[in-house]
Amino acid sequence: MSGDCCRLPPIQAEYTPKGDYSTINGLKTYAVGPEDAKVTVLCVYDIFGYSPQILQGADLIASQGYRVLMPDFCDGTYATGDMFAPGGEEKRAKFFAGFPGAITTQLEPVSKYVQALQSASSNKIAAVGYCWGYKVAVEAQGNAGVDAIVGAHPSFAAKEDGDKINVPTLLLPSGGEDMEVMNHIKSTVESKLPGKVSLKHYPDMPHGWLAARGDLSGGKATEEFADGYKLIVKFLKDTF
């Protein structure tokens, strides 16, 4: 996981979500957007779970005609702000030692969720992976066959990811990601899918800026948050 992900505190934000929670495919799921949409966007959240910012992002995507589902893959076990405050080192270390969002534990649940969605409808499925969720989305693409991937401030990114990805891809790295790796992934996928891969680097944004570390108080950070979601929607429209 990105070192920044393990150090930076989340931004506090207030937001009233537009969707609802229900049990879908056996998991509590935040669901928003038209049920008759032709594309389902599966969001794999970051370590802070259902933060106000990530829910707002889901609602922004849904407002453009997409059905957005955000399952509670970590079953309510999320990082909290006090883990990143002075004196929270021990609590933070304990959390990450037992973090349920490890790739090894979440690959199967995410893949099964995708397969259940595929069995229930003919919808195209795009997976938006935040932080560790990016890597799970990459692995699940090979396992279950999602139709597109978005990596938002992707953690655990490795050059070999480009060999595994065989679908249209959007990468949105922050200042906390290794751009040599990001560019390698882009060029590798681009060689297989010309014109189907996009990358935009946000060097001034912290890891997590499209989720719990998004600063929605105004100014450049809020503008970049909006820009990131505009690019996600544009990618979805261009892909499907």
From TrEMBL:
Q: Which Pfam families match?
A: DLH (PF01738)
- Residue ranges occupied by any Dienelactone hydrolase domain in the UniProt entry: 28-237
Record InterPro entries: AB_hydrolase_fold, Dienelactn_hydro
Q: Can you say what this protein is called? A: Dienelactone hydrolase domain-containing protein
**What GO molecular function annotations does the UniProt record carry, in alphabetical order?**
hydrolase activity
* Coiled coil, from the record: none
| Gene3D superfamilies according to UniProt | alpha/beta hydrolase (3.40.50.1820)
